[in-house]
Design goal:
alpha+beta, five-stranded mixed sheet, about 15% strand
Length: about 220
């Protein structure tokens, strides 16, 4: 049945306007984004089909152009819209990190890292460079590895931190395996970087291990 034939109180857009976004499930939120369905499938059913096909919103947002366009009713325009939405969210979170102390707004940092790194298929080592009030100056993907590792060179991190006149850094890398558990190598690398940066009075505030489903903090685990 076409959504316009539903009772007004059951239509996703009207429910969102009356009750807020939390009242809608994932398929209903996707329906509002998609706006229309296809022959035989309304927008909510189409959203549900996408979730079944990809398994989650995270995997849907991480889908390649070819993967999304292979779905009925999807095309390059929808892919472009999804990417634009994701980038706007990333930029909004980055703005929060630039104006707020990273330690007082850890949720924004975590959300930004998950959106930036969580769905990548190759391990990437990222550094967030912070000023003396722990506000974000810049972030850089410094090293990219194979499916299971990224080789990190402390000298390059130190050089880049000095170029930004950073007072502190937050380290992060993803685990494509989906396991947000720091390895012994992760702990050793964190210690090496902390010791190298301490020589020039730059603090390592945390090292996050990121996956599409979670994020682990070495500082919270007492390893920093």
């Amino acid at each position: 049945m076409n959504i316009q034939q539903w009772p007004v109180t059951q239509r996703p857009r009207e429910r969102l306007l009356q009750h807020g976004t939390a009242a809608l499930n994932d398929a209903e939120l996707l329906a509002i984004f998609l706006r229309t369905g296809i022959a035989g499938r309304n927008a909510v059913e189409l959203g549900r089909d996408l979730l079944v096909r990809f398994g989650s919103l995270n995997r849907l947002f991480a889908a390649s152009r070819d993967e999304l366009c292979a779905c009925p009713g999807m095309g390059s325009a929808t892919y472009a819209q999804l990417q634009a939405v994701m980038e706007m969210v990333r930029r909004a979170l980055a703005e929060t990190c630039r104006v707020q102390d990273a330690l007082s707004s850890p949720g924004a940092v975590r959300d930004w890292l998950r959106l930036s790194l969580g769905s990548r298929e190759h391990e990437t080592f990222c550094v967030l460079f912070l000023d003396n009030q722990n506000r974000l100056i810049a972030s850089e993907d410094m090293f990219r590895g194979t499916l299971t590792e990224a080789r990190v060179y402390p000298r390059e991190v130190l050089k880049q931190a000095l170029s930004y006149n950073a007072a502190a850094v937050i380290l992060a890398h993803n685990h494509p395996s989906g396991v947000a558990e720091p390895s012994m190598a992760d702990r050793q690398l964190t210690r090496q970087l902390a010791e190298a940066l301490a020589l020039v009075d730059i603090r390592v505030l945390d090292h996050f291990i990121v996956t599409s489903h979670g994020i682990a903090s070495l500082a919270e685990a007492g390893w920093l």
